[in-house]
Amino acid sequence: MFHNIPEIAFRYALGVLIITYGLITINLLKNYSKTKKVARKKVFSENVFMFLDWWGVVAIPWMYILFNFFKSYNFYLPHTIRIIGISLYTIGLLLFYYSYKILGKNWSMTLEVDSNQKLCKTGPYKYVRHPMYSSFFLIMFAQLLISANLIVGGVGILFWTMLFLNRIHAEEKMMFELFGKKYIEYISTTGVIFPKLSLAHKK
Ligand code: SAH
Asked: How far is CA 160 from CA 34, 44, 113, 134, in A?
């Protein structure tokens, strides 16, 4: 059906999506709360992982978009699947933005909690404890589908998975230390990045 679409259109589409992602992130950083931090968790080489992730999300995709780098790693994917990738990336961005709107001042780049921290349980946080991380997985998977390139897709998924695995346990421990029983109760009704199936049955 969509076989007439030139290859470059997918590269540009990915570029527009990454710029939108960047704009949301800049907004997030601008509104980053300066309130007093009451606890911080240092996780193993967090800066190294964040730096690697930046390559996977920004630098490598832009080399591919602007200069058609890594073209020997292109693989065949039907255009319909690549268009589905564009839709998934868009859904990922909407989920990222929605989660940020709900999390508000509780958002932070590294793991920390401040004196005004509230436990968010509404919007996407009603179903999963880490909807932002769900959105990043969706975005990274979509990047693989849109680019149809092993390096651009693979490196994004690999680096993001490493960053995620490195911080998720520490983040939940930090939340438990702050909210105690309330967080345990919250865990019992939510999934980590996918909603709990039993919850879907209940409603
Ligand atoms: N992991 C979450 C939030 C990412 S931002 C997500 O994927 O949506 C990281 C910061 O969010 C952490 O430092 C923590 O202070 C805060 N945080 C995480 N979950 C939270 C929750 N349910 N309510 C309030 N703050 C939360």
From this structure: 26, 15, 22, 11
Q: Output the tens digit of pLDDT for each of the chain's 203 residues.
A: 788 999 999 999 999 999 999 999 999 999 887 777 888 888 878 889 999 999 999 999 999 999 999 999 999 999 999 999 999 999 999 999 999 999 998 999 889 998 889 999 999 999 999 999 999 999 999 999 999 999 999 999 999 999 999 999 999 999 999 999 999 999 999 999 999 986 555 55
Nearest to 47 by CA among 137, 168, 166: 166
106 C-alpha to ligand 1 centroid (Å): 7
Evaluate: CB of 125 within 6 angstroms of ligand 1.
Answer: yes
Name the pTM for this structure: 0.94
Query: Of all atoms in ligand 1, which is nearest to the CA of residue 186?
Result: 22
The atom of ligand 1 lying closest to the CA of 99 is: 8
Interatomic CA distance for residues 142 and 192, integer angstroms? 20
